[in-house]
Specification:
- By secondary structure, this protein is of the alpha+beta class.
- The protein folds into two domains: 161 residues, Ribosomal Protein S5, domain 2 (2-Layer Sandwich); 125 residues, 2-Layer Sandwich (Alpha-Beta Plaits).
- It is built from ten helices and twelve strands.
- Strands 1, 2, 3, 4, 5, 6, 8 and 12 form an eight-stranded mixed beta sheet that branches. Strands 9-10-7-11 form a four-stranded antiparallel beta sheet, sandwiched between helices.
- Helix 1 runs parallel beside helix 2 and helix 5 packs across helix 8.
- Bound molecules: 4-diphosphocytidyl-2-C-methyl-D-erythritol and adenosine-5'-triphosphate.
- Adenosine-5'-triphosphate binds next to helix 1 and helix 2.
- Keywords: ATP-binding, Isoprene biosynthesis, Kinase, Nucleotide-binding, Transferase.
- It catalyses: 4-CDP-2-C-methyl-D-erythritol + ATP = 4-CDP-2-C-methyl-D-erythritol 2-phosphate + ADP + H(+).
- It comes from Haloechinothrix salitolerans.
């Protein structure tokens, strides 16, 4: 009898920017306590998962030569974690994972995390799993601090090491310009640099995130621009001083504000509207302060099957006593 092979599943998954990134002190487990507001942007990776007798990873697109193909790929780790969770033990998962990258690698936009989240959603459908989004989020959190947000998307407040999420009201579409750097920055190195700077007399910390939540609800990009803040920016700039020039160039080109995205080195510029973003992108591209420039908008939804049904069960409503 012939086995039925399910058709491949393609998932589109967004990059993130941290509109507010407050970093607390280092914990005993080496992580830092965060208070962050994530926004998912229309800059995406696409991941196709397919049943295959030749398991493995293929990568093309943005930074393709710097992405590991084997077990070190976060998407492959996601496939293994999900297989273990649902009891598909034994050999490595018999799947081929094809990643088309649009998100810069080691760029502070959670590209690897995005691919892991997309793989979880894709395999849940490919394997026809009866699994709730909440269960996927738990597996996601084991893979990395940013993976749960890549699943949920939108705009969300993240606490803990960034993996505990609450959705945030955001009435408006915001327009961004992203400046990609020639070379990535290592996330642990940037956190380490912040610890070092703080030992030597503390760069000022971002304040409360509450006013930023109000600006998001109001939908006014000018108000939001004044409230963007990232504790990791000083550390990223300390490791890569040329980012200062990039940040200045974006604002000189007409952006409302510029910031380092997460652990950098990508710089994100908030613009008044879509036309302004196109103008800023064109000007910035001519200045030679970055490798390449993209426009994007947010918020957008999290990892989602392209042209298909999501097989994961919605989480049942929580009842609190
Ligand atoms: C900078 C952010 O992108 C902001 O959203 C995230 O905090 C980083 O998330 P991520 O890349 O998914 O990070 P993980 O893979 O969980 O951790 C990588 C390393 O970053 C550092 N790390 C990460 C998250 C956190 N809250 N504190 C940390 O100190 C730790 O050295 C950790 O070993
Ligand atoms: N699928 C993947 N895509 C990109 N990088 C990956 C992937 N899997 C593993 N990596 C490795 O992880 C490192 C960090 O990549 P990633 O693009 O996730 O960084 P990042 O965007 O700075 O992460 P974050 O914003 O979550 O801190 C890369 O240098 C690469 O070696």
């Amino acid at each position: 009898m012939l086995a039925v092979v399910p058709p491949p599943v393609t998932v589109r998954v967004p990059a993130k920017v941290n509109l507010h990134l407050g970093v607390g002190d280092a914990r005993d487990d080496g992580y830092h306590e965060l208070t962050t507001v994530f926004q998912a942007l229309s800059l995406v990776d696409e991941v196709t998962v397919a049943a295959s007798e030749e398991p493995g990873i293929e990568v093309s697109g943005e930074g393709e030569n710097t992405v590991p193909r084997g077990e070190a790929n976060l998407a492959w780790r996601a496939a293994n974690e999900l297989a273990n969770y649902v009891g598909r033990t034994g050999d490595e998962p018999k799947v081929r994972v094809v990643i088309r990258k649009g998100i810069p690698v080691a760029g502070g936009m959670a590209g690897g995390s995005a691919d892991a989240a997309a793989t979880l959603v894709g395999l849940a459908a490919l394997w026809d799993l009866d699994i709730a989004r909440d269960e996927l989020a738990e597996i996601a959190a084991k893979l990395g601090s940013d993976v749960p947000f890549a699943l949920s998307g939108g705009t969300a407040l993240g606490t803990g090491r960034g993996e505990e999420l609450v959705p945030v009201l955001c009435r408006h579409t915001f327009h961004w310009v992203l400046a990609f750097a020639t070379k990535g920055l290592s996330t642990p190195r940037v956190f380490g640099e912040l610890d070092r700077l703080r030992d030597n007399g503390e760069p000022p910390r971002v304040g409360s995130h509450a006013p930023l939540l109000e600006a998001l609800a109001s939908g006014d990009p000018r108000q939001l621009a004044m409230l963007l803040g990232n504790d990791l920016q000083a550390a990223a700039v300390s490791l890569r001083p040329s980012l200062r020039r990039t940040l200045r160039a974006g604002v000189d080109a007409g952006a409302l504000a510029g910031m380092v995205s997460g652990s950098g080195p990508t710089c994100a510029f908030l613009c008044e509207d879509e036309d302004a973003a196109v103008d800023v992108a064109a000007q910035l591209a001519g200045t030679g302060v970055c490798r390449t420039v993209r426009v994007a908008h947010g918020p957008v939804h999290g990892a989602r099957i392209v042209g298909g049904e999501d097989s994961t069960r919605p989480t049942p409503p929580q009842v609190h006593a």
